[in-house]
Amino acid sequence: MMERVNTVNGLTAMIMLVLWLAALGATIFALIHAIRQRPDAFTAVDKQTKPIWLAILGVALLLLLLSPAGLGLLAFISIIATGVYLADVRPKVDEVQRGPRW
Hints:
The protein is elongated, with a radius of gyration of 17 Å. The chain has helices spanning 2-36, 39-44, 50-66, 73-98. The N and C termini lie far apart (63 Å). The protein is mainly α. 82% of the residues lie in helices and 0% in strands. The chain crosses the membrane at residues 12-32, 53-86.
């Protein structure tokens, strides 16, 4: 019985580690993307300014690094901030810099 509990705990820990690594990778990707964009692209699409997004994503990265043992509340806040950037801001910033597609 105890072996089964250890197996489940090990599997749960492995899943949490994979989720944390995915969140960390997505946040690093988003931060690098934001760094490489022109500052006027953010205001052109009516989003927060580039420095604000850099601060948000930098804090998100810091919070993720401070919670490697598990996905606590701070990690979830980081994941939400990263998700907003990747799903809402990034596509619009890319589109305004690329121009209309024919």
